[in-house]
TrEMBL record:
InterPro entries: SAM-dependent_MTases_sf (IPR029063), UbiE/COQ5_MeTrFase_CS (IPR023576). One of its GO terms (biological process) is methylation. It holds the Pfam family Ubie_methyltran. This is Methyltransferase type 11 domain-containing protein. GO terms for molecular function: 2-methoxy-6-polyprenyl-1,4-benzoquinol methyltransferase activity.
């Protein structure tokens, strides 16, 4: 399929076709090109756990949000399972640190550029 993520999102969600509303895709740690205090909201779903430097991503989110802007982050949380009185399901993977992921990936036969 030759459709880009942008094409898929814009065809699926009509609000993204508007010039007034939209989304920005970019490096969560820097948000390059996004002006300070320019966003009404910042959303990230199941992505913060994949950001190596969460401190930088949170600082960037804070930088681009307008005063009173909304930060919305959806992630899996062990606290939810505890509050529901059940254990985390057996299929849930434990968190992995960036260094552990890098060590595991160093043994994979990646194809060079």
């Amino acid at each position: 399929n030759d459709a880009s993520l942008d094409d898929v999102c814009r065809s699926t969600y009509p609000v993204l076709r508007s010039d007034e509303e939209g989304y920005t895709e970019g490096n969560a740690e820097t948000l390059d090109g996004v002006p300070d205090e320019s966003m009404d909201s910042y959303t990230i779903a199941f992505g913060m756990r994949n950001v190596p430097r969460r401190d930088l991503a949170l600082a960037a989110a804070h930088r681009v949000l307008k005063p009173g802007g909304r930060f919305l982050c959806m992630e899996f949380s062990p606290h939810v399972w505890v509050s529901l009185g059940s254990k985390q399901p057996p299929y849930a993977l434990p968190p992995i640190t960036p260094s552990a992921l890098a060590a595991a990936a160093s043994n994979l036969p990646f194809v060079g550029p």
